[in-house]
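Notebook entry, structure prediction.
Reason for the run: the old model in the group folder had no record of what sequence produced it. Starting over properly, with the input documented here first.
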Amino acid sequence: MIDYLEQVTDATSVEDVWRLHCEKMASYGFDRLLYGFTRFRTATGFGDREDFLIMTNHTGDYADKFINGGLYFHAPMVNWAVRNNGPCSWTWWSKNVNSLSESEKKVAAFNRAHGVTAGYSISFRDASIRNKGAVALTARCGMSQDDVEEVWTEHGRAITVMNNVAHLKMINLPYSSPTRQLTPRQREALEWMRDGKTVQDAAEIMGLTVATVEKHLRLARGALDVETTAQAVLKASFQNQIFVVER
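New structure, fully documented this time:
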């Protein structure tokens, strides 16, 4: 466990953390993971899908239907994670199947059809009500929920700690959707705005014209899908896309 924690804390990318974490969880029998995090949660939802940090090693077909198809919005354990913190056995939804909504029952049936039947979910505690992160640990095919409970009895505390560490590490590394990456110049312009500089100040510091800096800021706003530079600075900060230590 110490070796794992050292490697995760030394990792410099979300992808590296995820690879290490998947390998470690597989050693406990959880070979399919689905992790999600948002900083834009509202009273009625999780915010823009494009703003989520989602990592999974499920098959492409499952992930596409569950995530892109919006099934996650009605998943029993996702709904549990929104209202709770900590680990929860998947026996929770099977014991409460009669109280599930029709939409939740359809998701449960979808999961059974894809062999997603035994496991644990962990909902992460956060200081902000806008933030929510959780991970679903699916046991490998052939493992029953009773088998999972035996693993959890012996290793549950360690597994919970490792998932919390991986979660905290990933949300402190740069991330964004593939179509919303900022260029170095866009990042630099936002950094100077974050430091309280005017566009004129930034132009002089960067050795560019005011018009060029304004262009970088406009493109940054477009990449981040926001209307104002202040909103761009905020979202880029949330995604750890500015003041980045180059690898």
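Summary: The chain has a mean pLDDT of 89.
The old model has been moved to the deprecated folder.
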